[in-house]
Amino acid sequence: MSDRRLIALGTSSQVPTRERNHNGYFVRWDDAGLLFDPGEGTQRQMTHFGVAAADITAIFLTHLHGDHCLGLPGVIQRLSLDGVTHPVDLYYPASGAEYVQRLRRASIFTETATIREHPIATPGVIRETARFRIEAHPLDHTVESWGYRLVEPDALTLLPDKLAALGLRGPAVGWLKRQGFFDLPDGRRILASEVGHPKRGGSFAFVMDSRPCAGALRLAEQVDTLLCEATFLESEAAEAERYGHMTARQAARLAREAGARRLALTHFSRRYQQAQPFVEEASAIHPNVIALTDGATVSLRAARPEQGRGGGLT
Fold first, then answer.
1. Which of 244, 247, 40 is nearest to 143 (CA)?
2. C-beta of residue 211 within 8 angstroms of C-beta of residue 254
3. Element (H, E) at 100
4. How far apart are CA 256 and CA 284, in angstroms?
5. Domain limits, the chain
6. CA-CA-CA-CA torsion for 305, 311, 312, 314, nearest 10 degrees?
7. Count of CB atoms situated within 10 Å of the CB of 77
8. Are strands 262-266 and 124-128 parallel, antiparallel or unpaired?
9. Which candidate in 166, 206, 267, 304 could, as Cys together with 229 as Cys, close a disulfide (CB 3.0–4.6 Å)?
10. Cα separation, 168 vs 42, whole angstroms
């Protein structure tokens, strides 16, 4: 059974509150562990919510404002302290290289972990494995900022009854999967599409500090889950524009226009005590909205529109 879920380590914006830590989001995608925007306190939040340093295989920074990166020194030092042996890839805006180096050397420690840096300067695919690819696209914030999009390739599920009717088993099925067809002894060519049905690959988008923009739309296009900042309510739309953020309504419009199946709101300003108004504002536009709390776990399997309305986690 594959394991695909989002764990919200922190959901506040610039200033943490009693209930919300600085940003931090961990995505388990089968054997990959993807850490996004580790803000201050991420190490402790990992302990609270069951994420080990050894689980991390890659780290992604959208930009170098403190609430999105001040947890990086502790996480990197923890990788060495815990003796993590696999390399960890670090993706960040190329313009922030100076700050990344400062964060990596913020204090004295013995570095044994292997950190492979990947500064991002152009949009497109930045990571590709046999199971998924990750794209980066520019956002519209007050400093250079990038969002990320994970997409799994579509697959074909072969149907046992159709295979059995044709006498296909064992190595023949293996050939059919690999090359997309199999030639029977009587000369007939069986196409994989004739004995299976398509299975759409999973997808996830991470859109943090940004105004609505083309890059955010590209990231969110047809994804199962869009994790999107909603720093303000629409009553503070002018402030959102000034500081390069979105309101809950703008996030919902983005999700609707992009065809995202589920919208997960986060990065709330400390001025708001409750998240329910964000859900209500966004739900008037998009039918499947949740507001994240610290420690929330969200399935990253395909979302059905009726599952998330009203703020429930699935």
1. 244
2. no
3. helix 97-104
4. 11
5. 4-154+200-299, 155-197
6. 50
7. 20
8. unpaired
9. 267
10. 51
At 188, the amino acid letter reads R
Residues 6+ apart with CB under 8 A from 57: 31, 32, 33, 34, 86, 88, 89
What would the two tokens of residue 18 be? 């009693």
Q: Hunting for tokens 């794209």 — which residue is that?
A: 135
Domain 4-154+200-299 belongs to what topology? Metallo-beta-lactamase; Chain A (3.60.15)
Q: Mean pLDDT, to the nearest integer, of 188-197?
A: 76
Extract the tokens encoding 31: 């054997």
Contact 222, 258 (CB under 8 A): yes
In the structure encoding, which two tokens stand for residue 64, read together? 């170098």
Per annotation, catalytic residue among 67, 89, 209, 294:
67
For residue 235, pLDDT over 60 is answered with yes
Q: Where are the beta strands (DSSP E) in 71-224?
A: 88-93, 115-120, 124-128, 133-138, 146-151, 155-158, 181-183, 189-191, 196-199, 203-207
List pLDDT tens digits, range 271-302.
998 899 999 999 999 999 999 999 999 999 76
* Angstrom distance (rounded) from CA 302 to CA 306: 12
Catalytic residue status for 161: no
As a whole number of angstroms, the distance between CA 46 and CA 175 comes to 43
Cα–Cα dist 218/166, whole Å: 43
